[in-house]
Amino acid sequence: MTSSDFREPWLRVDGEPARAFEDEAATEIASGHELHGLTLAAIAKCEGCDSVVYRASDGTFAIVHLSWTRKSETPPWPRTTRLGGFVAVETAMDQHEH
Ligand SMILES: [Zn+2]
Question: b/e for 30-67, b at 16 or more Cβ within 10 A?
Answer without folding.
Answer: eeebebeebebbbbbbbeeeebbbbbbeeebbbbbebe
